[in-house]
Amino acid sequence: QGRPHLVYDNICTFPPTIDLSHNKFTGPIWPSFGNLKNLHVLNLEENNLSGSIPDSISGMTSLEVLDLSCNNLR
């Protein structure tokens, strides 16, 4: 359904950061985010994400900041 397959090979910021805030994404958080083991910052605030936070997020062992604010998560 148009969901990207996430692969983390090389992100050129330090610390490694993905900012997908304010993009009007809908539906659940993609479980494939759990593949991003070296990511330090993931910002998904101000979208319309819903459902539960996937268990795969616990696989993001380097994650220091996770912003899920202003979504419809339970």
UniProtKB/TrEMBL annotation:
InterPro entries (alphabetical): Leu-rich_rpt, LRR_dom_sf, RLP_Defense_Trigger
GO biological process entries: detection of stimulus
A Gene Ontology term for the protein's cellular component: plasma membrane
Topology term for the membrane: Single-pass type I membrane protein
Domain of life: Eukaryota
Location in the cell: Cell membrane
Pfam families for this protein: LRR_8 (PF13855)
SUPFAM superfamilies: L domain-like (SSF52058)
Keywords, in A-Z order: Cell membrane, Glycoprotein, Leucine-rich repeat, Membrane, Receptor, Repeat, Signal, Transmembrane, Transmembrane helix
UniProt record similarity statement: Belongs to the RLP family.
Name of protein: Leucine-rich repeat-containing N-terminal plant-type domain-containing protein
Organism: Gossypium raimondii
